[in-house]
Amino acid sequence: MRQRPSGRSRHRRVRDAAALLVGLLVAGALYGLLAPRPQTADARSDPALLEQGRQLYATSCITCHGQNLQGVESRALSLIGVGDAAVYFQVSSGRMPLARQQAQARRKPPLPQFDPGTAEGQENLRALGAYVQAAGGGPRVPEARGGALVGDDASRGGQLFRLNCSSCHNFTGRGGALLDGKYAPTLEEASPVQVYTAMLSGPQAMPRFSDRQLAPEEKRDIIAYVLAVRGERNNVGGFGLGEVGPTAEGLTAFLVGLAALVLVTAWIGARS
């Protein structure tokens, strides 16, 4: 005969189920409070600004990136999720629209209507970015511009730059070659907002640095370092050799010395 569960057993099961339910509710509440909010499309933008951005997109971007920002195969990738940070970096630096298909977009003068040095260019960049942001979401352009994006601690910025950036851009931001025809561009001409948006959007072979990986104040300190070493020529005691890093002169001396040793050895062998 099947034994019925006792009252104490039923009470224990109810208690365990209630505890599990409470635990799930608490875990869900904590996740909702602590988890990063997804960068979704922003539908609160000015309708007139969005319409302006849509028209600019239709005349400058739609051929390669498609009518719905989904991209066109063999032409360009989707813009869903890139945010207006990527739009600002790519368009203000002249990398987009792309001049021709190649391994990496090269910096060139921007189109006149997107020149960040003019009021019209700034307005058009904001409109195009707002349209892409509203349609696909993604990292946002910082509200601060110019000197407000330059940190106060260039020394700490140098440490962060050497840790996160120097392996590609070398120690003073002069750039360098990568694989498959790609390269890390020089930072000589990049404005503070272009450096900031590049860190947010991760163009070409560059990784993205979210605010959880590099805090906003750390990004600003990196910009302070980039500006501090821009144009410097710290070549005391020798040649700079392109300023590609502190080992350049030692490596050159080693290779020249090795070649000289080989030549001397060959000369001695020939005489004997």
Automatic annotation (TrEMBL):
Compartments reported by the entry: Cell membrane
Membrane topology: Multi-pass membrane protein
Record-listed E.C. numbers: 7.1.1.8
Keywords, ordered alphabetically: Cell membrane, Electron transport, Heme, Iron, Membrane, Metal-binding, Repeat, Respiratory chain, Translocase, Transmembrane, Transmembrane helix, Transport
Domain Cytochrome c: 48-136, 152-230
Transmembrane parts of this sequence: 251-270
Main location: membrane
Reactions the enzyme catalyzes: a quinol + 2 Fe(III)-[cytochrome c](out) = a quinone + 2 Fe(II)-[cytochrome c](out) + 2 H(+)(out)
InterPro entries in the record: bc1_cytC-su, Cyt_c-like_dom, Cytochrome_c_Oxidase_Subunit
Subunit structure: The cytochrome bc1 complex is composed of a cytochrome b (QcrB), the Rieske iron-sulfur protein (QcrA) and a diheme cytochrome c (QcrC) subunit.
Protein name: Cytochrome bc1 complex cytochrome c subunit
Organism: Pseudonocardia oceani
